[in-house]
UniProtKB/TrEMBL annotation:
InterPro entries: ATPase_NBD (IPR043129), MreB (IPR004753), MreB_MamK-like (IPR056546). Belongs to the FtsA/MreB family. SUPFAM superfamilies: Actin-like ATPase domain (SSF53067). Forms polymers. Forms membrane-associated dynamic filaments that are essential for cell shape determination. Acts by regulating cell wall synthesis and cell elongation, and thus cell shape. A feedback loop between cell geometry and MreB localization may maintain elongated cell shape by targeting cell wall growth to regions of negative cell wall curvature. It comes from Listeria rustica. Keywords: ATP-binding, Cell shape, Cytoplasm, Nucleotide-binding. HAMAP family: MreB (MF_02207). It is found in: Cytoplasm. This is Cell shape-determining protein MreB. GO terms for cellular component: cytoplasm. Pfam families: MreB_Mbl (PF06723). One of its GO terms (biological process) is cell morphogenesis. GO terms for molecular function: ATP binding.
Length: 348
């Protein structure tokens, strides 16, 4: 059933990544779509749509249809995904209707959320859809031996969700998931400027601040930047200068949640799993893992190795596209690759 025309789709909150075993990563662009307000037709997707976000004329509207790692706006997700797959079909010279697709979901996604994602992919014309849990895809993409009974801890920090999972033998054995991730940190930065500087900034500006000035709480060369927005006092354009020290408390609070998740996972997992984690270490993936100084800081917080995935923005899509190499099933219809797991309590 799977062939070189099969694709793996990472339907992320921030980005959509599509992988094909023959051609590699075919598409990686923001999960944003711009629609004509009157006709509801797609005007732009991906990079161009993100550049237009918050700047569209009244005749157009820019939408982010995915939130917290799942679909928040079904119809517009289908429109976005259809446009993405049309582009993929042209680049890879494949027929979407003859293509099998694997798509990943957060391990913490509900049955309803998983079914909605499957339905969205099927609505594009694809006939066979395999649902893959993101931690398993991440492990495959990172080159871990998931066919062996060795446990690995995956820390996936995306835009919509943060998950700490233990993966072994093609399945997720334990998982903790919170819907607090890169986008949540952006929102905290926006709120900080509103309260401390009386300055209104947008999502794109907050993201730039996070990427340039965001550091894990460890010694680093002080950086600063000018931030432009609209004054809440005068309603006029205004500029303020901030440093990496100014937003450090926001970063520290966010990272404290991740440390707590890791501790809960290790402390409440069976001894055999914990032993593997100590030996194998933690694999970091997702865009949030690229936070300045994060790997080094986390290494100092735990007593086992921390390894940054060499390709954290694409490894989940790659693993999703390679899932058929690890399945003992012959796929003849919809398939969901999941395993029973430990339910570990976590309070964010």
């Amino acid at each position: 059933m799977f062939s070189h025309s099969s694709i793996g789709i990472d339907l992320g909150t921030a980005n959509i990544v599509v992988y094909n075993e023959l051609r590699g990563v075919i598409f990686r662009e923001p999960a944003v779509v711009v629609l004509d307000v009157e006709t509801k037709e797609v005007y732009a997707i991906g990079n161009l749509a993100k550049q237009m976000y918050g700047k569209t004329p009244t005749t157009l509207t820019a939408i982010k249809p995915l939130q917290d790692g799942v679909i928040a706006d079904f119809d517009n997700t289908v429109k976005l995904l259809q446009a993405v797959l049309d582009r993929v079909a042209r680049i890879a010279n494949i027929s979407i209707r003859k293509t099998a697709a694997s798509v990943n979901v957060p391990a913490g996604a509900t049955i309803v959320e998983r079914n909605i994602i499957r339905d969205a992919v099927l609505a594009t014309g694809i006939k066979v859809v395999t649902i893959v849990e993101a931690p398993v895809a991440a492990a495959i993409g990172a080159g871990l031996p998931i066919n062996k009974p060795v446990s690995n801890m995956i820390v996936n920090i995306g835009a919509g969700t943060t998950e700490v999972s233990i993966v072994s033998y093609r399945g997720v054995l334990a998982n903790i998931s919170i819907r607090s991730a890169g986008n949540s940190l952006d929102a905290e930065i926006i709120q900080y400027f509103r309260e401390e500087h009386h300055l209104l900034i947008g999502d794109l500006t907050a993201e730039k601040i996070k990427m340039k000035l965001g550091y894990a709480p460890s010694p680093h060369l002080l950086k600063s930047m000018d931030v432009r927005g609209r004054s809440l006092l005068t309603g006029l354009p205004a500029t303020t200068n901030i440093s990496s020290t100014d937003i450090q408390p926001l970063i520290t609070e966010f990272l404290a949640k991740i440390i707590k998740m890791i501790h809960v996972m290790v402390e409440q997992s069976p001894a055999e799993l914990s032993g593997d984690i100590v030996d194998q270490g933690i694999i970091l993936t997702g865009g949030g893992s690229l936070l300045n100084g994060f790997k080094e800081w986390l290494t100092n917080q735990v007593d086992f190795p921390v390894i940054l995935d060499p390709n954290p923005l694409e490894s989940i899509a790659i693993g999703t596209g390679r899932i058929h190499l690890y399945s003992q099933h012959t796929v003849s219809g919809d398939l969901e690759l999941t395993t029973p797991r430990l339910n570990l309590p976590f309070f964010s």
